[in-house]
Amino acid sequence: DIAMTQSPDSLAVSLGERATINCKSSQNVLHSSNNKDYVAWYQQKPGQPPNLLISWASTRESGVPDRFSGSGSGTDFTLTISSLQAEDVAVYYCQQYYSTPYTFGQGTKLDIK
Amino acid sequence: QVQLQESGPGLVQPSETLSLTCIVSGGSISSHHWSWIRQTPGKGLEWIGYIDYNGGTNYNPTFKSRVTISRDTSKNQSSLKLSSVTATDTAVYYCARHGGDNWFDPWGQGTLVTVSS
Predict the structure, then answer these.
(1) Residue A113 burial (CB < 10 Å; 0-12/13-18/19+)?
(2) % chain A with pLDDT above 90
(3) Residues of chain B neighbouring A60 (CB-CB closer than 8 A)
């Protein structure tokens, strides 16, 4: 199985500041056939299911604010929130869909400092 | 807009079978893959398995001996059965549609299942 490890486990950032969440996969998730990284990012607010933010490591879903961006390739990935807003308080998860069983990171809890 | 709604018993006895249903509205169960995923405080998000648009299945080896995912195209729903449950199967269970190349979007609201006598 491909393990996804996020860091940090929790993070507190001031409003308007940058938040950075890292995700490392135990195996390469870049597919040579299409040169795409098989990583997604989700946001989960209390009492709600996870909500897809980013696919293909860096493709923002429709309706997701452009302050959210994804980067990285191979085994190391980053979710960046460029200017933290109050509504961004949530737990964030990465997921690999390179191979089954699909696996998730343990989550990073983001709060306001 | 596709919506998913899980339903089933909130309490299951140890050693019995957990049975859940996911009703799909606004889309066809025959047009995508549909997964079951669970969430626990201890293990986080765990993918259980999926049923594909042809009715084929793919299960997480962790659950393979205990899980069955099926569908009823006439009711546009997917079902999850997990046998021989223990307290460690207590979780919020979600159904989700596969988008693109196997990310999950959207998800149902989830249903809490507690395994306890």
Answers:
(1) exposed
(2) 100
(3) none
First to last CA, chain A: 36
At residue B70 the predicted structure's pLDDT band, cuts being 50, 70 and 90, is very high
Selecting from A49, A61, A102 the residue whose C-beta is nearest the C-beta of B108 gives A49
How does pLDDT run across A53-104, given as a tens digit for each residue? 999 999 999 999 999 999 999 999 999 999 999 999 999 999 999 999 999 9
Chain A contact residues (CB < 8 Å to B): 38, 40, 42, 48-52, 55-56, 61, 93, 95, 97, 100-107
The residue behind tokens 């207590």 is B90
Strand partners, A72: A77
The beta-carbon neighbor of B103 closest among A97, A101, A106 is: A97
